[in-house]
Amino acid sequence: QVQLVESGGGSVQAGGSLRLSCAVFGYTSSRYRMGWFRQAPGKEREGVASLDSVGSTSYADSVKGRFTISEDSTKNILYLQMDSLKPEDTAMYYCAAAPGALGALLRRSNFLYWGQGTQVTVSS
């Protein structure tokens, strides 16, 4: 079974940075869609950033210019570099994957596999 394992979360002050990592186990594919989602207390899970294997990327408006999604496809690792963090970025962050799919999309229904999440807390 495909497994996604997030790491890199933690507690930082506003203005700080974190880099999240997602290690993908159980499959390899020449085409895929990968993404990051987050869910804050009392809110719906929302798409943060996504990419696909042909170079497309998408970002939520709330993180454009601050977050960068990237990958090491050889190692099957997805990254989310988060800079200029704000308290409203506080959430559980989830990695998601869709093997065989293309298009940098940001809906939960566009992904098949999910990690367990890593907590990001940004203090004011």
Which terms summarize this structure?
124 residues; mainly beta; 7-stranded mixed β-sheet; 4-stranded antiparallel β-sheet; 0% helix; 52% strand
Estimated share of beta-strand residues: over 45%
Portion of residues in helices? under 10%
Number of helices: 0
The helix-and-strand class reads: mainly beta
What is the end-to-end distance?
40 Å
The helix/strand series, from N terminus to C terminus, equals EEEEEEEEEEE
Largest sheet: 7 strands, mixed
Low-confidence stretches: none
- What is the arithmetic mean of pLDDT? 95
Radius of gyration: 13 Å
Task: Tell me the total number of β-strands.
Answer: 11
Q: What is the general shape?
A: globular
Q: Would you summarize the structure shown here?
A:
The protein has 124 residues and is mainly beta.
Give a written overview of the molecule.
The protein is mainly beta and 124 residues long. Helix content is 0%, strand content 52%. The chain has no helices and eleven strands. It has strands spanning 3-7, 10-13, 18-25, 32-39, 46-52, 57-59, 67-72, 77-82, 91-99, 113-114, 118-123. The strands form two sheets. Strands 2, 4, 5, 6, 9, 10 and 11 form a seven-stranded mixed sheet that branches. Strand 4 (32-39) and strand 5 (46-52) form a beta hairpin. It is globular. The termini are far apart.
